[in-house]
């Protein structure tokens, strides 16, 4: 694993942790399903080796997480 791989891995793990933290704010009824969806998305792309695709997935994940965070804020969670 070279430095670039290490940095990409760190970014993925950071995104995953952020997603779990934000999902903790979700309503109780939706929390388990949301966490399961987050985990499934990570598992679906676990074996991806294409660095360009990984960067795209990180970017996409950050955007989706931002929208989720804003939605939870609007709902008062």
Which terms summarize this structure?
3 helices; mainly alpha
In terms of topology, how is this protein built?
Layout lengths: L2 H21 L4 H17 L6 H25 L2
Helix pairs in contact: 1-2, 1-3
What do these coordinates show?
The protein has 77 residues and is an all-alpha fold. It is built from 3 helices and no strands. The radius of gyration is 14 Å and the shape is elongated. The N and C termini lie far apart (40 Å). The model has no long low-confidence stretch (mean pLDDT 96).
Overall structural class, as computed from helix and strand content, comes to: mainly alpha
- Please state the overall shape, judged from the principal axes of the Cα atoms: elongated
> What is the helix content?
over 70%
Instruction: List the helices and strands in order.
Output: HHH
Mean pLDDT: 96
N-end to C-end Cα span: 40 Å
Number of strands: 0
Which residues sit in consecutive blocks of at least 5 with pLDDT less than 50?
A: none
C-alpha-based Rg, rounded:
14 Å
- How much strand content do the residues show? under 5%
Query: What's the tally of helices?
Result: 3
The largest sheet, given as strand count, sense and whether it forms a barrel, is: none
């Amino acid at each position: 694993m070279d430095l670039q791989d290490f940095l990409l891995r760190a970014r993925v793990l950071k995104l995953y942790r952020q997603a779990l933290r934000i999902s903790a704010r979700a309503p109780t009824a939706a929390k388990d399903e949301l966490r399961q969806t987050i985990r499934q998305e990570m598992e679906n792309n676990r074996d991806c080796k294409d660095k360009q695709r990984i960067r795209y997935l990180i970017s996409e994940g950050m955007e989706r997480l931002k929208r989720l965070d804003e939605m939870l804020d609007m709902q008062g969670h």
